[in-house]
Amino acid sequence: MDSDKPTVVDAHAAFEGKLRGKDVQILGKFKGEIELTGRLILGEGSRVEAKVSAEQADIAGEFSGDLKVKNLVLLDKARVEGTLEAQNLAVREGAQLNGSVSSGSAAGSGFATVKSEVGTSPAPASPNGGTKVEPPKPIPNPQGVVAK
């Protein structure tokens, strides 16, 4: 078995329970708990209700629950609701986020580093070194196509 390939939940599948592993791509429905040492990819049309812990997450579908990751990318069709903890956050124009976001760093400022995919104008700086907006970089979507 090739360990470099992600576990895939097919677009026509519905899964409930605990999922542990390295990399996972969900194209269908999932409800439960996800613990990964690598990357979580939620494709367009996916619907996930879960408590998630992973190194990185790329969301193009619907997510609700608790998400704890180092790097988070919300693609243009993402619909996210819940509690997010991420050190780095990139949000594409069109993504919807309804919830709370924190950096997860006890010693940090309480803000995640945000990369805006909408424009390049920086956000107002907070007195304690808050949110940073950096110019957008092309990011591959779950289908492997780089957006312009």
Distance between the termini: 35 Å
Taken together, the total number of domains comes to 1
How many E strands? 12
Largest pleated sheet:
12 strands, parallel
Helix content: under 10%
Q: Give the mean pLDDT.
A: 79
What is the chain-wise order of helices and strands? EEEEEEEEEEEE
The stretches of 5 or more residues where confidence is low (pLDDT under 50) are: 106-111, 118-135
Strand content: over 45%
Overall shape: globular
Tell me the number of helical segments per DSSP (H or I, 4 or more residues long).
0
- Assign the structural class, choosing from mainly alpha, mainly beta, alpha/beta, alpha+beta, or little secondary structure: mainly beta
What is the C-alpha radius of gyration, as a whole number of Å? Answer: 15 Å
Quick tags:
12 strands, twelve-stranded parallel sheet, mainly beta
Give a brief outline of the structure.
The chain has 148 residues and is an all-beta fold. Helices cover 0% and strands 51% of the residues.
Give a description of the structure.
It is globular and about 30 Å long. Strands 1, 2, 3, 4, 5, 6, 7, 8, 9, 10, 11 and 12 form a 12-stranded parallel sheet that branches. With 148 residues, the protein is mainly β. It has one domain.
What secondary-structure arrangement, pairings included, does this model have?
Layout: E1 7-9, E2 14-21, E3 24-26, E4 29-36, E5 39-42, E6 47-53, E7 56-59, E8 62-74, E9 79-91, E10 96-102, E11 113-116, E12 133-134
Parallel strand pairs: 1-3, 2-4, 3-5, 4-6, 5-7, 6-8, 7-8, 8-9, 9-10, 9-11, 11-12
